[in-house]
Specification:
single chain, five-stranded parallel sheet, two-stranded antiparallel sheet, 9 strands, elongated, binds S-adenosylmethionine, tRNA_m1G_MeTrfase_TrmD, tRNA (guanine(37)-N1)-methyltransferase activity, tRNA (guanine-N(1)-)-methyltransferase
Length: about 240
């Protein structure tokens, strides 16, 4: 997968050199380039923002550097899926991460200040898919943290990136539920024991316990997820839980 990130703070993306993403880049599974938007400015101050049309607080990112950046990085005919982090975007979910992991080329436009002039997104959507995507119902300083989160969520789904791909199957949000609690050794710690069933070696009982715990946790913490599960996703034993 090819990934381009355009930002006024390239240093913010440095963690993408670390850990499993760093290894995926070194192994050639992911090719990731971070571009400084100010490269496409032409004044001595390298200005990327201006006052809002119609008045109001804050500054808006000017369209010209963005237009030039996208022209330079996407000369065509192949185009990326352009993702624009925004608190006004559609909520980013695991289902979306799965879809994005199958795409060959993603580009990210990181907003700062009060965001990017809307005409940049309108013009881009004439020649490539554009999605405004939100990390959650809160406001960050800029799109960079959202890019770190989205790139992690997407790239870990690409075959070869995770050491043990089987771990993806039982994770939270994979089957619409939150994952059951996890334990490791020692069997007893600080007066607290690992649940007996997990020490039983009885595979079917362990699976049933994990499923019940996942259902209970989801009901307690995210009833919205449980309500959204299709009926056929629950078996008879689930309904007894
Ligand atoms: N004026 C914008 C609004 O009210 O919708 C908020 C701008 S915010 C201060 C600056 C930038 O941070 C945004 O352009 C976006 O790139 C990023 N950002 C802030 N909150 C975000 C969120 N919840 N999800 C994704 N990106 C976010």
């Amino acid at each position: 997968m090819k990934i381009d990130v355009i930002t006024v703070f390239p240093e913010y993306l440095a963690p993408l050199d670390l850990s499993l993403i760093g290894r995926a880049r070194r192994d050639g599974i992911v090719s990731l380039d971070v571009h400084d938007l100010r490269r496409w400015t032409h004044d001595i101050h390298r200005t990327v923002d201006d006052t809002p049309a119609g008045g109001g607080a804050g500054m808006i990112m000017r369209p010209e550097p963005w237009g030039e950046a996208l022209d330079a990085l996407v000369p065509g005919p192949e185009v990326p899926h352009l993702l624009v982090p925004s608190p006004a975007g559609v909520p980013f979910t695991q289902a979306q991460a799965v879809r994005l992991a199958a795409e060959p080329w993603l580009a990210f436009a990181c907003g700062r200040y009060e965001g990017i002039d809307q005409r940049v997104l309108d013009a881009a959507s004439d020649r490539m898919p554009v999605t405004e995507v939100s990390l959650g119902d809160y406001v960050l300083f800029g799109g960079e943290v959202a890019v770190l989160a989205i790139v992690e969520a997407v790239t870990r789904l690409i075959p070869g990136v995770l050491g043990n791909a089987a771990s993806l199957a039982e994770e939270s949000h994979n089957d619409g539920l939150l994952e059951a609690p996890s334990y490791t050794k020692p069997a007893s710690w600080d007066g607290r024991d690992v649940p007996e069933v997990l020490m039983s070696g009885h595979h079917a009982r362990i699976q049933r316990w994990r499923r019940d715990q996942a259902l209970l946790r989801t009901a307690q913490r995210r009833p919205d997820l449980l309500a959204a599960l299709p009926k056929e996703a629950l078996d008879r034993a689930d309904r007894r839980c």
